[in-house]
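Milestone 3.1: sequence recovery, worked example.
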């Protein structure tokens, strides 16, 4: 934990600021948009009340710092987008769709495996923490399926971090094998009679509704109401003076020196 001399917590702001500065220096993006989760109830909670219910509440100091993070992102000219009722992943998926319509190539900066369902010839995911870029081949290496099957993979195996149920006892390898054999979640259920493993067949049969509900939960929305011109705006570098004042106030001397 870090804080300035006034006692304001700053560690999350310092972490995000350092990551963004590294991204700017190493990647020199033509355009840059930061997608942010909404503080309002997600539509996924309406679909499944237990969605993310296993997560403890965010620490108060983190909530406080996220307001500061938004200030940093705005001062840096990184076009933050938040949409009530939607998650950041849905904003990213919508932006990817808009970029594809305009013939643009996209780098998704994240370590979230859900976003691998967006990967394609014109879209990669860059995990800055591991310094690894995921295209279709790397997605197959990591999850055992093509990007277009990631959604159905997550629907079958579930996701404990988001409390997505999936089918009990079906892990990544089993789910990947089912999708290799039958192509999709619908294909699995259309060919239940051909599954010879009795226990697996019974689990799939018993938890069919869970699998279908899970698929709905992990499907990224591409219809978030956001500015369709956001993806074509150039990154201009933001307001350096405002950033210097901000980092000085928070006493983030390392970021100030690197700015």
């Amino acid at each position: 934990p870090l804080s300035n001399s006034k006692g304001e917590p700053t560690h999350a702001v310092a972490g995000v600021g350092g990551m963004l500065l590294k991204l700017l220096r190493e990647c020199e993006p033509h355009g840059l948009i930061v997608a942010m989760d909404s503080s309002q109830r997600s539509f996924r909670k309406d679909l499944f009340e237990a969605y993310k219910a296993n997560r403890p509440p965010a620490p108060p100091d983190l909530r406080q710092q996220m307001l500061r993070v938004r200030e940093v992102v705005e001062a840096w000219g990184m076009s933050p987008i938040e949409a009530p009722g939607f998650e950041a992943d849905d904003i990213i998926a919508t932006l990817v769709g808009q970029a594809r319509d305009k013939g643009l190539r996209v780098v998704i900066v994240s370590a979230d495996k859900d976003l691998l369902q967006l990967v394609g010839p014109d879209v990669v995911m860059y995990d800055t923490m591991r310094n690894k870029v995921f295209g279709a081949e790397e997605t197959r290496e990591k999850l055992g399926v093509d990007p277009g099957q990631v959604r159905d993979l997550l629907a079958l195996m579930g996701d404990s971090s988001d409390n997505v149920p999936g089918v009990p006892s079906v892990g990544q390898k089993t789910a990947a094998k089912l999708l290799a054999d039958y192509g999709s979640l619908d294909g699995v259920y259309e060919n239940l009679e051909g599954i010879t493993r009795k226990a697996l067949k019974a689990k799939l049969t018993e938890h069919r509704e869970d699998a279908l509900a899970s698929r709905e939960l992990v499907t990224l929305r591409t219809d978030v109401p956001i500015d369709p011109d956001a993806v074509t705006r150039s990154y201009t570098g933001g307001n350096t003076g405002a950033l210097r004042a901000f980092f000085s106030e928070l006493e983030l001397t390392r970021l100030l020196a690197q700015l």
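The radius of gyration is 21 Å. The first helix runs from residue 11 to 27.
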